[in-house]
Specification:
The structure is a single chain. With 246 residues, the protein is of the alpha+beta class. It is built from five helices and 14 strands. The strands form three sheets. It has a six-stranded mixed β-sheet. The chain has a five-stranded mixed β-sheet with strand order 1-2-14-6-3. A hairpin with a 4-residue loop joins strand 11 and strand 12 (188-191).
Length: 246
């Protein structure tokens, strides 16, 4: 894998699991999409996006399963149609990469401790509150205690100020979510997506959770951020796949 394009998840996954998370460096896009934008829906030149994707695919040597993300809870499994409308995907097929695109929303990479089973999920606050994590774990059909999760780069708690309606959406499902919100400006709250995800994973019985320390908004040289850049920005790719047998 080309380290000039991104980095691997730092977690104790089984040896057959591969991961790659792109940054904004190493591509051909310009302007607000500079330079390794993988999103084909955010206003960038399609030829630039195609070249950026080609570079990443050549680096990971796996076939990505792209999604049409809609901040929902649908999960695409093996055998689905091309470009499904979903915010998570799982696979047992070698060299097929589950991938979610992000630029502030929380990416989750998931693997089974003993079996060739991986997944990726895209969790903005709407999808997180609606249950995309729960839907992903259910779709994988495995004992949650046997799963490992890595939380990728997302907007951090010191940069994600939200309205009261966001806080209420989480508290309606779990009053303990209150600890993930700190008072901000009048009528606003600072939300911790990482803590909210960890709470939901713990309730499901998933306790081996890693990552969660990278803020997209606070690192403009490394990450795209939809909020920081006021909407004109690219998307990073978060990939996970099963290595083919030698």
């Amino acid at each position: 894998m080309n380290e000039a394009l991104g980095f691997r998840a730092d977690w104790p996954a089984p040896p057959w699991v591969r991961t790659f998370c792109t940054t904004r460096a190493g591509g051909v896009s310009t302007g607000g999409w500079s330079s390794l934008n993988l999103g084909d829906h955010c206003g960038d030149d399609p030829a630039h996006v195609a070249e950026n994707r080609r570079r990443v695919i050549a680096s990971i040597a796996a076939v990505p399963r792209w999604l049409r993300q809609v901040h929902g809870t649908a999960v695409a499994g093996d055998g689905v149609a091309e470009l499904p409308e979903a915010d998570a995907a799982w696979t047992r097929q070698a060299a097929t990469a589950c991938v979610v695109l992000t630029a502030d929303c929380l990416p989750l990479l998931v693997c089974h401790r003993h079996e060739p089973l991986v997944a990726a999920a895209h969790a903005g606050w709407r999808g997180l509150a609606a249950g995309v994590i729960e839907a992903t774990v259910e779709a994988m059909g495995a004992d949650p205690a046997e799963l490992l999760v890595w939380l990728g780069a997302a907007i951090g708690p010191g940069a994600f100020e939200v309205g009261a309606e966001v806080r209420e959406a989480f508290l309606a499902g779990d009053p303990q979510a209150a600890v993930a919100f700190l008072p901000g400006n009048p009528g606003k709250w600072w939300a911790d997506l990482y803590m909210l995800a960890r709470q939901r994973l713990a309730r499901l019985g998933v306790h081996d959770v890693y990552g969660g320390g990278l803020c997209t908004a606070g690192d403009p040289w490394r990450f795209f951020s939809h909020r920081r850049d006021r909407g004109q920005t690219g998307r990073m790719g978060n990939f996970i796949w099963i290595a083919p047998e030698p």
